[in-house]
């Protein structure tokens, strides 16, 4: 019996399917640079074929200038491959746009259908007619390859000690060994969230060596403070916490800002009272 996929598993799968669609897309009106930008968007795509990366992120991933990214995003939208929608923070600050990939293939089937790759009559995915060589052939072949000794003893090759992996010079500061634990402990708690999916995405960011861990954690701290404050006022807003893997995949630490300190009426009155006294 198969395991029902979680929303995070679906998000990862949709990103892979979006990349497959982008790679196979072949149009006369699309340049190689446009396709490169589209592939970056597809890598960030979620369940609804939408991506939220900032233009600086697209620029870093594609190694194009901000101007070139902007120009090619507009071209992709002009020919109907993507649709972009602007977003703003509640404070009025500009957020990264939402890019909708216009995937024209039939809508994906339910994960349970797409994962059902084995035949009902052969639950282990093996056809009786294709189990390999027959027993007699297998035994005879095994006998002819028992080694060079006449008594059919094996000649084991000399084992070499495992080689140490080559060290790689990092562009960013080394991440702490417990970076997964630090991230998970700080991330706002969302019922049903997948720690495994989040850690896979986090490990990918660490391997790509383009993000300082301190920058990521600073953005996460702002996000956690904001969401925890909202949930404290209204517990039903817990449903608006993004899945941790989605938050990482969309590089949301880049859009998070420190909370704006609001001046209370009493503080405002006190400041203006002191000003009046000074005058």
UniProtKB/TrEMBL annotation:
Please note every region of biased composition (Polar residues).
85-97
Segments for region (Disordered):
85-175
Q: Which N-terminal stretch is annotated as signal sequence?
A: none
The Basic and acidic residues compositionally biased stretches are: 105-167
* Entries under InterPro entries matching the protein: WH-like_DNA-bd_sf, WH_DNA-bd_sf
Top-rank taxon:
Bacteria
Its name, as the record gives it, is Helix-turn-helix domain-containing protein
Organism of origin is Bradyrhizobium hipponense
